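TICKET #2291
ISSUE: user wants both folds in one file
ATTACHMENT 1:
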Amino acid sequence: MLKKRNPIEQILIDHGKITEKTLEEVRRNDFHRGKYLGKVLVDHGYIHSQVLLETLSHELGFPYLQAAEFPKETMPISGLEISEVFLKEKLVLPLKMDTEKLMLAAFDPFDLETFENLKVSLGKEIEVHLSSQEDILEGIERFYGKGHSTMGRMVSNIQEEDTVEVDLESTEHIRDIASEAPVIKLVNHIINQAIEINASDIHLEPFADDLILRYRIDGMLYEHEAPPKRLNSAIVTRIKIMAHLDIAERRLPQDGRIRIQAQGKDIDIRVSTLPTLFGESVVMRILDRGNIIVNLDHLGFPEKELKLFQELIHKPYGQILVTGPTGSGKTTTLYGSLEKINTPEKKIVTIEDPVEYQLRGVNQVHIRPQIGLSFANGLRSIVRQDPDVIMIGEIRDSETADVAIQSALTGHLVFSTVHTNDAAGAITRLQEMEIESFLISSALLGVLAQRLVRVICKECKESCTMEESALSEMGLGKLQSPNAYRGKGCSHCNQTGYRGRTGIYELLVINDEIRPLILSNASSQEIRERAVQCGMKTLRQDGWRKVLEGVTTVEEIIRVTHS
């Protein structure tokens, strides 16, 4: 006989937010007994609180409110005769009251007993809104408590005398502190907060008197509330334990990896520690394995350039280079290219530092220079594996460049990246690595230069007037002034006016016009000018197109293409 489901189980199953397997797993454990199922699912990482609340809001008709949407005025709790303990226990927060009703934020919409008790005791109708545990607790602290944030509440649970800065002999003491629940919760909060706001990196930086916490969102760093400096050793040790690093080694840099399930996602976190003057600095790169398989069609390519690039990646052999600074999305473009041509008839091998994402059906090699597995050495071995397609994470030296060119000339399709400012610069970069010009002209199919620009937030997008300097940059006059847009700033984009990123591109196809210039060792400027005459759109031209389409702003294009 099938076990009858309660309402929340039915709603989440019907909407595909949890599976029967998850429900069975929760029922088998004791941690759910007597507790609201939504809280159990959120606390144990089966579902993200926002997904839970948005689903319940859609099904039950209760509005979903985030902290930024709470009324700013303080609710006089004393006049309501409701204790702070009661609010925290029931996870409810009075938001607004008039003569007839009380507007209440609640985490559990099925707690009818609490709503009825409030209705009877206050003599008012209860208008329920849904909010997360964190937002409700933070609201209680801000309006009725000591004003502690989530971070402040966690820090207050860690005794100061337990976390004084210690010397190298106190490793075991620090390990004990790092293994206790308050520090574990604190580190989990820092990571979960980063995932929630779609940050790509977490930076924890110790200085003389304080610890700074910054998140990189859409390529820009933003400072957030940080724990006190006294907790630096405990936090770093906890992160090292998670990444399987040596907690006793604090004088040398270390690199590791953490794999977690957070908010229903499989997350890889690349960890780098660096000893500084005031303690160890930590950077964590967040890689969401569920979001990497991207379609080239969705990366922001202009239609013409996308068609040309797809023609190049379907060639049987030759070399294709992607160029741009660190963090410009080169790896994503390469993975998108491999995904496009990944068929059972082709053997694809990559050599990377490090392997950022796993691609099904692709043989991926992680270089290890300390044991002699460099790009060049690994590439020589890869060629003997009978591949059709080879992807090299980066061409850093003459040896790797030479093996890559030879591979492209002997029947392999070779993808790689180099660091140059524009597409034409990649050719002179290869020449500087002592690759003969006739080899480059024979092997190279094309060079794609790219940058990432922030996208205007759709929730707060508004029209604006372009400044004369911007019109001049775009080659337009006042009479040609087009519509422009910007983001005003809202809770959805953390008041930045931007949410998400897209690419701008410059595709140099090596054709019969460009090859003679390569053979004659022409400068990158000459190659660039000839390519533009042949129809190549520059990075800035593609950027202006996206400005006119209302995708991004003039300021963004100038910021990323100023060089």
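ATTACHMENT 2:
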Amino acid sequence: MSSTLLALLATLPIVVVGLFLVGLRWPASRAMPLSYLTAAGLALFVWQVPAVQVAAASLKGLIVAVRLLYIIFGAILLLNTLRESGALRVIRQGFTDISPDRRVQVIIIAWLFGSFIEGSAGFGTPAAVAVPLLVGLGFPAMAAVIAGMIIQSTPVSFGALGTPILVGVRDGLTGDASVLQYAAAIGMTTADGQLSPEFFKFIGIKVALLHAVAGTLIPLFVVSLMTRFFGARRSFADGLRVWRFALFAAFAMTLPYLALAVALGPEFPSILGGLIGLAIVVPAAKAGRFLPRGEEVWDFPDRAEWHPEWTGIMKISLDGDSSRAMGLLRAWSPYVIVAVLLVLTRIDQLGIKPLLRAPAVTIPFNNLLGTAISRPEQPLYVPGTIFIVASLLTFALHRMGAAAYSRAWKDSAHTTLRASVALVFTVPMAQVFINSGGGVAGYEKMPFVLADAVAQAAGGAWPVFATFIGGLGAFVAGSNTVSNMTFSLFQFSVGERIGVDPGWVVALQAVGGAAGNTICVHNVVAAAAVVGLVGQEGAVIRKTLPVFGYYAMLSGCIGYAVLWSGRTGWLNAGSVAAGLLLLALITFAARTLAADRP
């Protein structure tokens, strides 16, 4: 079979998702079974993968799906606990005291608080924390999910204390002779000839630089899309009016983020960048700095005017138990507990992480069905456990009644159950797609077939496409870490093949993998499920897809400009394309604001 035809066949599971989920607006519970059957059929009859391997990959997907449902349940439980205790009402009032403007609130919660949570735990946890918090404050469920998905870009490469770099890139590159030769040439190998920690810091600095440029516009994208799709006037201009504050909030995170990557390495840019940004932006927001003067506070229209697709099956009331006064610190204590526990359980040196991941508390799903496919699970380490612990502590701290707490558990179980149908097909599809190598036909696994076809067609223009391949990996796998594991060595090899610095190409892979989280199907399904937004996954992806396109294109063009600058100078196709893209965005914003003036 020709490589072109094989590559076209490999796209079919993704085409099915695009056609039925995004194009025809089917709910994920209907579209994803078709995508799974397509991937399984290709694996069995074209790639000729043994049926037992397809079954094992599907079983691994089900294990991952159960893990995601556990996280979803924990996140919903914490939110419902806060609702029943009356804490949500206090938290909402606290944000109103900072600023009643929803544009300011979404930047603080999604961009800054979300970056901190991403840096602490990664793996979709920000959506499980920030999205329900936004809904609890009165945001439409879809607006909250879109905001939560868009910020799953800049902080992701350094999420979970640098896991996508320190695990994803490291595991993807370790052991290859050409990588070791490259690292040795720049003095970044250990005494025994292995890749040194400085090598991954070296990659991380490149990643941070690309993110710091592309991520600058992310808060502005969040507010502009929010006002365009969920405002009374359906106007980009309402969001663009806070451009000074949005850029201020962006720089308050990205500049410390970049400095931390240079000074400390991949572990701390997102977690400390988010915290520093909060410390800078919250006082400024309270003082009204960088906000337009003399303008009405922006809010969503009355709930009665909301479109039915904006809201989920979860109805979040702020009534709760109002019989006792509650201070702001006490109301926020559950989120403080979550943040502290996430940090304490993610830092190796504290000794808690090894205990939670010890063999004695690990469920050894190894060599599933006799294959090489494994998925050990550590339930005590999963963020869902932290959410449940925080909920139990909240029950005591907020002195809740048993009946109210029982309602929180019952409502959470009901909402989680509604999400299960989509996830039990979404994640197995991804696992079959990724584990499609080693068949009798002798073809590479489907992601590699796709990437290789693009590489052959792109030639020297590969840096522009490298980010999109990283995004493809995250779109399918739902993880920047897995995308980096899968494609880092491939990206390195293509960089060598076209004669450019392969370290920069690996950095482009990591950035694209982070951006791909904004459109990843099972991340969207999980985030939507947390707030009961079932069946609108395609609508979410349609709104976040342009953000992914911007992020991957701008980063890829900058990468092209850097990689070919030594031969063509800095004024080359990449820098021109990046400049034109930014100019187009600035022109659009300026014209939109000018047209909206009275």
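RESOLUTION: both attachments delivered.
EXTRA DETAIL ON ATTACHMENT 2: Residues 51-85 form the longest helix (35 residues).
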